[in-house]
Design goal:
With 365 residues, the protein is an alpha+beta fold. Helix content is 45%, strand content 22%. The longest helix has 21 residues. The relative contact order is 0.17. The mean pLDDT is 94.
């Protein structure tokens, strides 16, 4: 995203006339390495995204809904038709402001640490964040680095990360709702703000050979019994993120497991779930979906996304920016799901040569 025209809009007449402004930032708990301006290598503090979202909530209040994932931070500001232009400008100014308040930073850091300590006592939370070490290994994620980062981050680091990473080039905007045109003056202000933040930031990592990735099993002590299973996938090097998304979206429907989480980015592809049959799930994933199940999956996925659009616009917006961060337009994504033929899908799977490795995080009292 470089200027106002790069913002994507979707007009949808919600009964409450709300407008959902969602910014996706390519920063999360597992984004460690970046290339700044195409030449400078930068190692990010893994706690930055969580502290930033808490900081922004102190300023923007309850209208801001945040979600920090592994490679993306979602910021959704809920507006309404009558105040859209004013709210939109306030949102953009706040996000891309170069100056950040030192006292608010300290409050945000304190709140983030307290929340993390509380969550860390939960076995499922700890197991999930430990699982990322396997599922997101190519991005260099380590739980220890996240914990250490929370303790060590200071105001100067926070300001520097904000300057380098919270830039339009590393973000995308999707606005959905009962829209109306904004003034030429507002467009000019937005373009000026974008022009003042012209660093480029590209997520980095390694492209390890998946076929050499070992299976792993980890046993830890916890307050409750928890099983988390990870299937990590690898593909031929020329396979696009979009093709991997389509593959995993259809193939994963065979896996019936609690709290199934799919994740695909440039460096890693995985499914995290709760089951005690990870080897069985691994074998199921290796076999190509049958045609009848393929058609059922197509219908189910399109139905879920349409339900999000109608009933859960924030979730729909989150999907839109998740795709856009990976240079995939949601309209193209939906079009492929709607039109791809089964034989074409099977042919693509053969070309992809997917490989699967598995890991288990077992926590016992």
């Amino acid at each position: 995203m470089k200027e106002y025209k790069d913002i994507e809009y979707n007009y949808h007449d919600y009964s409450d006339s709300k407008i959902y402004i969602t910014l996706g930032i390519n920063v999360g708990v597992a984004t460690r390495y970046f290339l700044i301006d195409g030449k400078k290598e930068y190692i990010s503090n893994l706690s930055f995204a969580n502290i930033l979202t808490n900081y922004l909530k102190l300023i923007l209040g309850q209208e801001l809904v945040v979600n920090v994932d592994r490679t993306i931070t979602h910021l959704t500001y809920i507006s309404k038709q009558e105040t859209f232009e004013e709210d939109f400008l306030r949102f953009i100014r706040t996000i891309f402001a170069s100056d950040k308040d030192a006292e608010l930073f300290e409050t945000s850091k304190k709140n983030t640490i307290e929340k993390f300590r509380k969550n860390y006592k939960n076995g499922e939370f700890r197991a999930l964040y430990k699982a990322f070490e396997y599922s997101d290994a190519n991005k260099g994620y380590k739980l220890y680095d996240l914990i250490e980062g929370l303790q060590k981050i200071n105001y100067e680091t926070f300001i520097n990360e904000n300057k380098l990473l919270i830039v339009p080039d590393n973000c995308c905007l999707y606005i959905n709702g009962k829209l109306q045109d904004i003034s030429c003056e507002a467009v000019e202000q937005i373009n000026t703000i974008f022009a003042e933040n012209q660093h480029t930031a590209t997520l980095g990592g390694t492209m390890s050979e998946q076929r050499l990735k070992d299976d792993a099993h980890l046993l830890e002590v916890a307050r409750e019994n928890v099983n988390v299973d990870i299937l990590s996938l690898g593909f031929e090097t020329n396979i696009s993120v979009l093709d991997r998304m389509i593959y995993l979206l259809f193939q994963s429907q065979k896996i019936l497991a609690e709290n199934k989480i799919l994740h695909i980015d440039t460096f890693d592809s995985s499914i995290i779930m709760q089951t005690e049959e990870v080897i069985k799930m691994k074998m199921m994933l290796k076999n190509v979906l049958k045609e009848e199940a393929f058609e059922q999956t197509r219908k189910h996925v399109l139905g879920v996304i349409n339900q999000w659009l109608e009933m859960d616009p924030m979730r729909f917006n989150m999907l839109a920016v998740e795709l856009k961060i990976e240079n995939v337009q949601i309209i193209d994504f939906l079009n492929i799901i709607s039109t791809v033929e089964y034989d074409e899908f099977v042919t693509n799977v053969i070309k992809m040569r997917p490989t699967v490795s598995e890991a288990q995080i077992i926590m016992r009292r």
